[in-house]
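Justification of resources, computational component.

The compute hours requested in this renewal are based largely on the per-chain cost of generating structure records like the one below. Each record pairs the submitted sequence with a full structure-token output. That output is archived, and it is also reused by downstream analysis tasks.
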Amino acid sequence: MVESSLQRVVVAGGTGLVGQPLVRALLGLGARVAVLTRNPQALACPSGASAHSWDELATLLEGADAVINLAGEGIADRRWTASRKAAIRDSRIRATAQLVAGMRACARPPLTLINASAIGYYIPRDEHPVNEDAGPGTGFLAEVCQGWEAEAAAAEALGVRVALIRIGVVLDRKGGALPKMALPVRWFQGCKLGSGRQGLSWIHVDDLVAMLIEAAGNPAWSGAFNGTAPEPLGNEAFTRLIARRLGRPMLPVPGFLTRFATRLVLGELAEALLLQGAFVLPARAEALGFQFRFPTAEAALEDLL
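The structure output for this chain reads:
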């Protein structure tokens, strides 16, 4: 790992599920970290990090070793309305465009931009694994990802190395998807959603943090990379692993009932995130020698549950 090259790093979205452990990990490597936030006065940063408003962008970006952009409204926080979809889209695309505009104003632009994207980029292909060579899908999430990535790629014209990390379902014990998935299982209500065969491409939060840092410090990381573990599973198989870990049964609920209930409660979000999926493989990261601490779902759940 080329960690020593990361002396000064700017993190946008440094207060979220991935951003907080990322900032701590960077500080542990001796980097100085500037966290971009809309409300710097309210953010208590760990020692060695500092909070800054987006108005300070040009100064912060000047000569930085890397910018890691994780900014964006939560995709699965609540039902998608027109205003919610606009917030999801704008918080990603506009924030990325703002970062690149700030780089254009620099005499010495940052060396590297590591920009989050998502596996929503891909066409859902149940049981047919996809890697970074697969084309984009259609629909809201795919369109957001394409616009997001296009804004980030514009930094290449400034001589900035750009790596796009298409992130899967991030597993963390404190928040995100896993506690929500485990809750019904804990209460003896675990069951598959829909067919149960739809792909669930996940990554342990520690592996994602390590991947982001590797991408920031290693010049070989350029272009699109899948931020997923090498063992994607179907929804039913993953839920069974949670049930086994928690010592709970799986209920034999027919798929059409869970599909109907999920759509009724969550609408379009349910179809896009829960009832469809792809088996996404981290082919390019593995080709560059990236080593996962948690390559299997069983190992990840053993650590987190």
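The chain has a mean pLDDT of 94. The radius of gyration is 19 Å.
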